[in-house]
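Deliverable D2.4 — example input (structure tokens):
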């Protein structure tokens, strides 16, 4: 990444564009360990807004936050065979501490099903103890071989919910509820349209009986898994002895779930909305919703005093309306330089105010999405901005939804599938066999993203690859993915 060079265009080099803009927009810096990242204030402020709003949605549905330790005994992972097999290649393990070799190696948390399962076995004795509806906001470590900021890093931030229930029906309802929350959050706060669906057997979370997902389309036509929920059945309860006396005083195993959304969602925002100028932030999550750029000659103190007085009044009025506003009054930088910087950072709205504007009682209001500028009476700006931010969110969402529609196809045969998958999402009938999925991935680099909860029927259809009868009621979404 070279800051002095032009930003690559998305059409020419989408990967290069992404790798460049996360640094240009001052969101991250490289950590000292391969694959780690330093999340800088602008990037972390975005994560804080994600956390704040999503956490409120969790609590509104009865979930509580807690915290579990970072270090997990390796023996815990060995109790659930599928789980340990799924995570073994990614585990980072502590073998020495205090100058001595440990009696038992400790895994650095890749996810917390095992350590939480062990605790739940002690916390649950009766059906009256259920449900347990807990979540934690933590860091996790997975030793990724190929990394990219926010999308795939050795250490990342996330929330992981872990619940225990008396019946399968309650646990399944929880799994679907949290999927709906993720989808609502993605669309209502991130302006990211998503497809809700179930993962195929080959794509399920290790140890789960069912994995639900929200899948988003990036502006290069690839998919990004933006959040997942998992129904574990009795798998972890049997492995960790989470048993209880039910209403009939019979001993039963609890049904558990887990669900998570991570800093990967920042990558989803960047790649769903950004353009060749840089980022475009969804207003409800944007660290800064509006920036005010005062314009005056450096040696004209009277003009400066007049402009800055009005800028301060305007900033105060906007803050009173709940707008996250920043005044860029840095000395020694031209207005054009500031405009470019804030456009790269994706701030939704910009107000430009100079002496001539002040004389007319107006200011220029610039829209990051459309690039349009309009003169607005100074007295009206604070009243207009909240509605302008709402309109910005809706326009951003519709732009992303239209892009997805234009890059979504339905394949009737494998030749069509291979052509379409280079351009976006493909709906196709699929037999459901893992071996068939593997062949498709090997030949096209596309994976089965999900079986949509709503979508085209596959009744009577045959697999686009092998010709066997469809194994699912609906056509499966395939795409290349991050």
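Example output (designed residues):
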């Amino acid at each position: 990444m070279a800051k002095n060079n032009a930003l690559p265009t998305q059409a020419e080099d989408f990967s290069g564009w992404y790798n460049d803009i996360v640094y240009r927009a001052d969101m991250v810096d490289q950590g000292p360990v391969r694959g780690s990242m330093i999340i800088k204030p602008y990037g972390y402020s975005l994560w804080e807004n994600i956390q704040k709003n999503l956490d409120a949605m969790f609590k509104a549905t009865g979930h509580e936050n807690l915290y579990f330790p970072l270090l997990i005994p390796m023996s815990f992972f060995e109790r659930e065979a599928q789980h340990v097999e799924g995570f073994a290649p990614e585990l980072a393990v502590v073998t020495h501490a205090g100058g001595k070799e440990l009696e038992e190696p400790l895994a650095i948390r890749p996810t917390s099903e095992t350590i939480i399962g062990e605790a739940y076995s002690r916390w649950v004795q009766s059906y009256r103890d259920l449900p347990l509806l807990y979540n934690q906001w933590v860091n996790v470590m997975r030793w990724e071989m190929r990394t990219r900021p926010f999308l795939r890093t050795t250490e990342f931030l996330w929330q992981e919910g872990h619940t225990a229930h008396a019946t399968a029906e309650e646990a399944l309802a929880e799994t679907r509820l949290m999927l709906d929350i993720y989808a609502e959050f993605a669309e209502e706060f991130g302006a990211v349209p998503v497809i809700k669906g179930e993962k195929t057997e080959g794509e399920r979370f290790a140890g789960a009986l069912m994995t639900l997902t929200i899948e988003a389309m990036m502006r290069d036509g690839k998919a990004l898994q933006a959040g997942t929920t998992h129904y574990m059945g009795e798998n972890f309860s049997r492995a960790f002895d989470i048993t209880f006396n039910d209403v009939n005083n019979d001993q039963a195993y609890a049904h558990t779930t887990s669900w998570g959304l991570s800093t990967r969602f920042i990558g989803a925002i960047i790649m769903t909305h950004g353009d060749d100028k840089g980022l475009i932030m969804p207003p409800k999550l944007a660290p800064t919703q509006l920036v005010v750029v005062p314009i005056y000659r450096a040696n004209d103190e009277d003009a400066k005093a007049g402009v800055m007085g009005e800028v301060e009044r305007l900033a105060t009025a906007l803050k009173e309306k709940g707008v996250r506003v920043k005044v860029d009054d840095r000395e020694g930088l031209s207005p054009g330089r500031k405009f470019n910087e804030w456009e790269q950072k994706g701030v939704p709205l910009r107000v430009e105010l100079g002496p001539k504007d002040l004389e007319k009682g107006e200011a220029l209001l610039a829209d990051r999405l459309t690039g349009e500028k309009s003169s607005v009476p100074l007295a009206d700006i604070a009243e207009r901005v909240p509605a302008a931010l709402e309109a910005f969110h809706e326009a951003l969402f519709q732009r992303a939804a239209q892009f997805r529609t234009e890059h979504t196809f339905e394949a009737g045969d494998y030749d069509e599938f291979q052509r379409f998958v280079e351009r976006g999402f493909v709906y196709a009938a699929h037999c459901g066999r893992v071996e068939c999925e593997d062949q498709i991935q090997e030949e096209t680099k596309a994976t089965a993203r999900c079986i949509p909860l709503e979508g085209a029927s596959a009744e009577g259809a045959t697999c686009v690859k092998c010709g066997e009868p469809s194994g699912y009621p609906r056509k499966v979404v395939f795409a290349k993915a991050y």
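The chain has a mean pLDDT of 96.
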